Each structure stands twice: as structure tokens, then as C-alpha cells.
Amino acid sequence: MEAEKKPILTVRDLVVKFRVRNKELTAIRSVSLDLYEGETLAIVGESGSGKSVLTKTFTGMLENNGRIPSGSIVFDGKELTSIKSDKEWEFIRGSQIATVFQDPMTSLNPLKKIGIQITEVLEKHQKMSFAQAKPIAIELMERVGIKDAGKRFNDYPFQYSGGMRQRIVIAIALACKPKILICDEPTTALDVTIQAQILDLIRALQKEDDFTTIYITHDLGVVANVADRVAVMYAGQILEYGTVREIFYDPRHPYTWALLSSLPTLAKKGQPLYAIPGTPPTLFNEIVGDAFAPRNRYALNIDFEEEPPFYQVSPTHFAKTWLLDEMAPHADPPEAIKMMWQRGAVHRDKATQDKAGATK
Amino acid sequence: MSEPILSVKNLDVTFKNGREEVKAVRNVSFDINEGESFALVGESGSGKTTIGRTIIRINPATSGSITFEGKRISGVISKDLDTYVIRNIQMIFQDPMASLNERATIDYIVSEGLYNFNLFKSEEERREKVFRALTEVGLLEEHAERYPHEFSGGQRQRICIARVLAMEPKFIIADEPISALDVSIRAQVLNLLLDLKRERGLSYLFIAHDLTVVRYFADRIAVIHQGELKELAETEELFARPLHPYTRSLLSAVPIPDPDVEKVKKLVVYDPAMHDYSVDKPSWRELFPGHFVQANEREATEYLKMYQA
Description:
By secondary structure, chain A is an alpha/beta fold.
């Protein structure tokens, strides 16, 4: 039996609004989420779906025009939405929840030596002296795969390639042993071979240091690689969440279907790709019903009138679509999804066979 | 087989920066046939974009030649031929946010090329050409009067494609045309490019780093690394029998949206130092019909062995 999973971060009914040109935009429309200790959760969505905004609320990094009118975020027994002072946020950001951003070109200071950018974090948050911090910084550089770290301590960012810079950003993020590491599109700006190395690196570090990881990405290939669990976001809401196998091999929300179907990997050559028509809704207006309904070829009449609740598919899998209601007509998912069912089943059979073989 | 529409032969492109020389493209040769979509795949800095830019004459070729429809278009060429090249070889760029003039209407953006080359006799004809191009990419006539900021990323990329189509080119260079777009929008743009190929018989040079997109889009693929072609084959052949270790490392690195496959996969890391070319020099060899690889004698034997079972 698996041990009871312990949530390290709990989000309930979170709403985030931004004031833009005298109009109010609702970026997060009531999101609830549990993050379990030690897991890797991937949040998937298009630009504007709210995935970055959501995680920014965990570290108090919302832009000045943003506010949280309702909802709660509890981390380590502490309510984060009521934090007012910068000092408290600095404590959280410095040693509890760290973030690795997309572009390593802009997250490092081009005028400061690489090593100093790591030691200053240790000096500030761990109250170390430079002499104490330097060997730790060099060790961190070695751990993230910088060869000859001692010699490269005095290099400047321009002397590093994009992949190496992202390694340094990761070293800085992990310097104070955070409990949660948020990776916001950490590999989007990198080449595929470098991307694969960085993903492997984060996985290895997570094993050694036992932190919890949140990945924010739009790349479903990356999600399949890293995630234990997946949450799919659209127009400021989570529409579906479950284990990575449940989301890929047995997705239930038509938006998840559409996302998977539009991937060229699942398409047959010579046949058009499935393209999601239209564009996401503007978040300036109040959204009635299911936000995806206007682009959804499986939409029911009720989707345009009433927002669907979450339906439970399995103890770990939930989807917010009326299609799962017992009153709903049967919906036949796209071909690509049926292919994914098969792939999942093939692997499942293989796994059980392997197990049977092993016990014999 | 018909005459290739575009032919690149022994192309070198060298950039000079003071006394420093950077060989961005080294001895690259390939042909693209009429109606074919040919992909150039490589990482940033591999020289793939430089090749595209050299074809449309933004960067000069240092040596080697490029021929289009049998006519040499690299080096010094006549004004008429230059005009012909601009009209018939058009480029779609990666970032639709950066490649449209924010202060011009869509109508002007799409007809700028028509103005430059006097490609219309009357205002009526110009407008008709603009509307036809807009309709072809799935935009509406009424969009012509709007400005770029009123459009989403996917729509802006279609405007870029409409601008290219208005010139009625024969050959399109698409430089990472979907990398800057959202997943749900990528499919729309890819479908559009493929439809145009079918309907207009267009030929493409598709420059990309994402092998999954290339597999779907391209007829043939050339893999480029540090300015040199490493391998060239028909798409499915390349995926079935990747020969060069760099190609194999690229294939192993592409994330596949299938968790069971992805969680057990092994990364192949490519280190150019693995080749021992001190005595046995590499050359461009055809190991299977139409399947070329850069290898020396010993490597060629090894590569062939991998697929003899």
C-alpha cells in the first residue's frame, strides 16, 4: 500500500484579478489544488490560461495591479494570501519556494560573476560569510554539472551557453534548499538536446534533495517526461487533473482531447491535423458556462448556460465537464485519443506481464 | 525525376568579425524538388537559418553556388533576376509578433510587396489580390483595415503568410514558423501550409528544431550540426534508420507525449570528439538509396552493420 500522501501546499477557491486600463480582468477563476510532498506536478495550458499567474501567487510575485479578492493558499500551515510584508515573502522566496524562469539570459545579472550570484543568496538568506558560502557555491556548481567549477566561479554569464546558464539558475534556486521548486517553462528557450539534459538534471536533484516540483509548460512531451500528476488549465481554471497516465491514456475533458489531438506526433501523415477552432475567451468579461464551449465540438446546450462541476473519474482523476454527467449523451472521443487508450493499454498489459514473469 | 527547383552546391558562408572568422555554413549541398517540402533540422547556431537567409540573398555566399530553376542566384546577378528571386522566393519568419509593422494596416502590410514591384494595374486589382490572400489564410476582408496589435499570435502568423502569398511565390522558406505559437494554434498554421502546398504546388524549405513537427510536415530531412550536413534522407527512412550519432542524439532528446515511453527512454549524448578523422577522412556517402550521411570508411561500415540483422 502506498503511504498516505501529505499535501505541502493547498489552494482553495483562489481568485486573482488584474486591473488593466481601468477594466478588471479575472486571470484565475476559482482554482483549487493540492500539491503533495515529493511529487512533480505539471500545470499545462496555453499562454493566457493563468498557469504562471497561479504559481506567482505562491511566492508573492503578482504584478502590482494584481490582487487576490478571495480564496486561500496554505503552505506549511501558513496562509500565504494574508502575507503583507516583503520580509515575510523574502523568507518564503529565499528558502521555501524557489522559481526557475524560462529565460536564463534574463534571470542572471550580466555584470556579476557567476559564483558571486550564488554566494550572495547564501549570504543573504543563510547569513553566511563569503568565506563560508564560496565552497558551498562551488559544490552547487558541480552538482548542476559545471565542470571545473572552482575555475569557473569567476566567469561572467556571457561566457556561458544557454544551457549552462540555466544550470546556474537552478543552482541559485536550490542554494537554500527550498521545499518547493517552481519551474516556469524552464527549457522553452533551450535546444532539444540541452532541454533533455536539464530535465534529467532537475529529476536527479529532486531525488537527492527531496523537494517538490511544479512544472509550468505548454509542451506535452515535457509533461510526459517529468510529471507524476498533471493539471490542465484553460481560461483561468483547472479543467482536469489526474496522474500522468490518466491524463495521457484516459483523458476526459474535451479540451484535453483537443490538445492531445492537435499534436503532430499523433497525426497520420497526409491527413490534416486536428486544429482547435477560434481563440480563448477574453477574461475581461464574465464567462458563462464552460469557458471552452464555443470552441468545443462536443459542447452540450448546458455548457453555454451553466458551469460544470468536477466529476470524479478515479480516486486521483477529476474532470470539469458535463460530458461526465449521467444525463449526458455518449460522446465518441477523437481518433487520436482512442490511439492513446490503446497505447496505455499496451503498456499496461506489458507491465502486468512483466510482473507475472517476475513472480514466477 | 524532374529538375530540382532549388539547388545548393558546396555552400560556404563565413562571417567576419574583425580578425575573427566564423564559418557558419561549411560545404553544404542539397537539392529541393518542385512541390517538395524539405526540412533543415538543427540546433541554434547550427547555421540552418543562415542557409535560408543566404538563399534569399540577405547574407552573401562566401563560396559555392545556389541555383533556382536552373539559374544561378548567388553572387552578383542582374537586377531583373534579383527582382525575380524576391518575387518567387519568400520567407516566413519565426516570431509573428516581431515581423509585422505595428503602424501599418493589414491592407498595407499584405500589399507592400505588390507596391514595391508594381504587381497591379489598378487599385481594384490590388485590393482583390489582398482579399484573396487574406481569404486563403482564413482571415476576413474586414480584417484588412485593422492593425497588427488587434490580432492574436496565430492570426498574425497568418497575416505573415498572406503577405507572402500575395507575391504568388513558387518557393517558401519557413523559418520555425510555429515555434512561437501556442499548441492549439500550431495545428492551424501547419494545416494551412500543407493545404497551400497541395493547392498551389508550392515547394518549401522548412527550418526547424522540432523533429516531431518535421516528421509530420517534411518529405525529406537534412540534419545540420555546426554548419555541416550530417545526414539526409526521406522522412520515414530517417526515423527508421538514423545513422549519424548526432541524428540519434536529436531523436532521443525529442520529448514524446507518451509517459510510458518517455519515462524509460535513454538519452543519447553526442560528442563530436568521438569521430577520429585524423587519418580516415569523412565524406558524404549514400549508404542506402537516397539516404546520405557524413562518415569515414570505418564509420560507414559500422553504420551499415547497425541495420543488418
